[in-house]
């Protein structure tokens, strides 16, 4: 069994790095705060004798040797947060992995296969788009050049920022043989809490599509220009949003639509904007469902162009199709949960996770624990110490199950 | 008669300061470019013997002495532009005034009353809100403290920026007795061009209200959060826009609604924003019409709050009620247009102008000339040299009429 108090204390210590007045975290990928978080993690791992290696994408691998030279059992998640993020998203998965290693060290247990805890770079996709890019490059979904070239809103790239904070490692960002991989995470949704269950046995991840939608209008004066002479990109954007929200909601209760970022250019109050740029996120658990949403978007774009005389450009920014996790890994989690006697249910993740890309090259599954009100990507994100401990115990058992003693 | 070629050449020379690749101007208030434009204007005025004085709001007064110590006849407009502005908005009114003085100088004509050409600070309201703040402080609508304290998006204030560019003058920003004031301007709308008229005899300016509308939601994760659990400020903003556009369009063809600026915070694609901030501009030529729009906004806000569960905050940023110009000044323009034989019509301005505030303390009217396609606040803004010359001739005659020779 893991030490729930030690896990909680480490979570709280990490949360001070980039801690916000509202009690959340702003530790965006490859900032000075991210560097501090990485340094703290590496120090903690070295203290229990782990070897630390960093790859060309800044992914950190902390290794605890096994008794045999087998492919490792890995776990991990990310330390980066949203700009107004919480204390648990990602961090929990990393520190639960660390807690597993600490528990084994304390009990002088050596596994047959080595164990590794991984910190994946830029999982959130908040500073650099897309999400899960560290694990994505590592798993071969994206090239290293693509990864290094991704830029934030100020034009700073992942490659340069990795170098700046000292985390541009020399190990190739590419997979090696892996026995099994697990990732513990808060659910980030309301299901476990509503159903009063402690553990989610995660069977897969829903599909995600990201778009940059640009509405091109004609700038003109707010006063003398008659309404019917305008090609107004705000009119177009608001009409598209209203139509698409309605379509998404009536299509299926599993469908999701989020407009997380939005800006008008040139952004002068008495000028109809030249353009409006919208960052759009659509999701569905089934491939056909996601395809339906994609088609709906393009149909609504046509309708809105017709209705408003504006030109609407839709650029595909990212597509992460639905993923089903490995049966054996799911079974290992299921077995652990049953042995430990926690209430549980099977579920599909609504959020993307590094496990999506890891699953391309290794057997993977995930372990969810509840979070208060299902709230995440919010400074008020919170979770019960007891649930976090339960998830850690499941992770320990599942890893031992696959690594052997 | 003025020299149309000299006027055109001066417009083109001024347009090089802050000239954009798309052929427009970006010479926003109190930037280095604005300073260069002001310096050029001051040099031109000194070359014809004018005395230059600058007040505490950076308003520049170029004075040509009269034969008697009478209150001056003034004209002028502004040199600042929108971020993606044109070559004529404001600049034309300033340089047409300069051209009047040059013509009198060339012809060795001395008027009875002195003449002054004024450059008013920050008319556009693009960098610093509200619009017409230089003339507004001067006329007593706003206090000097309020004027100096207004900040741009980076937090830089008018007071500090005036000092930085060397245009924080020592003359009090307050009115003195004035015989009459005129302002020449491009129409910035389509009426004169459509009706093939050369001169608009402007009888007043419609009313304007500016609002900062903030939609407060609950940030949450784009994936796991069910649509019905969200308090989504983009949903609220788009619904409000659609409802209000519909109300404004059905209320009256004279009503205007513009959403010139818009942004989401924290602005992360996979997070429902915490808030959306919208800069809203509503206009109507009649006070009752503007009040009706104001009431509509507040009713729609209530409806949208009910429908979306968000909280919507409406902050009044500026209110410029409809203005009727002075009968004698309108008559002076009308007389000049008729004497010169230009086709013309009476009209109400859709845009706000410095004349709105000048009219609080002096008899005022305005002279409009057509602009291509009615387009303004756009880099493609353009006007015919012939029309600009006609407007300059009307200005000359109207000023001579009030100043006497
Ligand atoms: N776990 C998490 O917040 N991932 C970010 C990627 C996504 O948008 O789902
Ligand atoms: N003339 C002009 O563009 N004025 C700006 C003030 C307004 O918004 O009407």
From TrEMBL, chains A, B:
<dbReference type="InterPro" id="IPR002933">
    <property type="entry name" value="Peptidase_M20"/>
</dbReference>
<protein>
    <submittedName>
        <fullName>Zn-dependent hydrolase</fullName>
    </submittedName>
</protein>
<dbReference type="GO" id="GO:0016787">
    <property type="term" value="F:hydrolase activity"/>
</dbReference>
<feature type="domain" description="Peptidase M20 dimerisation">
    <location>
        <begin position="204"/>
        <end position="305"/>
    </location>
</feature>
<dbReference type="Pfam" id="PF01546">
    <property type="entry name" value="Peptidase_M20"/>
</dbReference>
<dbReference type="InterPro" id="IPR011650">
    <property type="entry name" value="Peptidase_M20_dimer"/>
</dbReference>
<dbReference type="Pfam" id="PF07687">
    <property type="entry name" value="M20_dimer"/>
</dbReference>
<keyword id="KW-0378">Hydrolase</keyword>
<comment type="similarity">
    <text>Belongs to the peptidase M20 family.</text>
</comment>
<dbReference type="InterPro" id="IPR010158">
    <property type="entry name" value="Amidase_Cbmase"/>
</dbReference>
<dbReference type="InterPro" id="IPR036264">
    <property type="entry name" value="Bact_exopeptidase_dim_dom"/>
</dbReference>
């Amino acid at each position: 069994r893991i030490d729930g108090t030690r896990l909680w204390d480490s979570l709280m210590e990490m949360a001070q790095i980039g801690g916000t007045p509202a009690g959340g975290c702003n530790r965006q990928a490859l900032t000075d705060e991210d560097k501090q978080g990485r340094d703290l993690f590496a120090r903690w791992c070295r203290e229990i004798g782990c070897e630390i290696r960093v790859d060309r994408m800044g992914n950190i691998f902390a290794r605890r040797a096994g008794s045999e030279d087998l492919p490792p059992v890995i776990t991990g998640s990310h330390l980066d947060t949203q700009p107004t993020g919480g204390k648990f998203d990602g961090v929990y998965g990393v520190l639960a992995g660390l807690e597993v290693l600490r528990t084994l060290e304390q009990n002088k247990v050596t596994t047959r296969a080595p164990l590794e805890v991984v910190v994946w770079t830029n999982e959130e996709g908040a500073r650099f788009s897309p999400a899960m890019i560290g694990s994505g490059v590592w798993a071969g979904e994206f090239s290293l050049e693509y990864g290094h070239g991704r830029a934030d809103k100020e034009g700073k790239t992942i490659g340069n920022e990795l170098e700046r904070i000292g985390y541009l490692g020399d190990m190739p960002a590419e997979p090696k043989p892996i026995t099994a991989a697990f990732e513990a995470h808060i659910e980030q949704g309301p299901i476990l809490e509503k159903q009063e269950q402690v553990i989610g046995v995660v069977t897969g991840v829903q599909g995600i599509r990201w778009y940059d939608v640009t509405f091109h209008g004609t700038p003109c004066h707010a006063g003398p220009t008659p309404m019917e002479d305008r090609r107004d990109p705000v009119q177009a954007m608001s009409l598209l949003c209203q139509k698409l929200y309605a379509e998404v909601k009536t299509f299926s209760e599993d469908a999701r639509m989020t407009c997380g970022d939005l800006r008008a250019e040139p952004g002068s109050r008495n000028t109809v904007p030249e353009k409006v740029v919208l960052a759009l996120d659509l999701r569905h658990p089934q491939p056909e469902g996601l395809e339906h949403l994609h088609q709906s978007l393009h149909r609504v774009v046509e309708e809105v162009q017709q209705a408003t005389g504006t030109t609407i450009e839709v650029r595909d920014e990212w597509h992460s199709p639905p993923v089903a996790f490995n049966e054996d890994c799911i079974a290992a989690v299921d077995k652990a949960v049953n042995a430990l006697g926690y209430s549980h249910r099977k579920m599909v993740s609504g959020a993307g996770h590094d496990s999506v890309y890891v699953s391309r090259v290794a057997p993977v599954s995930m372990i969810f624990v509840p979070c208060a009100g299902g709230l995440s990507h919010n400074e008020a994100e919170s979770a019960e110490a007891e649930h976090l401990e339960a998830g850690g115990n499941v992770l320990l058992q599942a890893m031992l199950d696959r690594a052997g003693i």
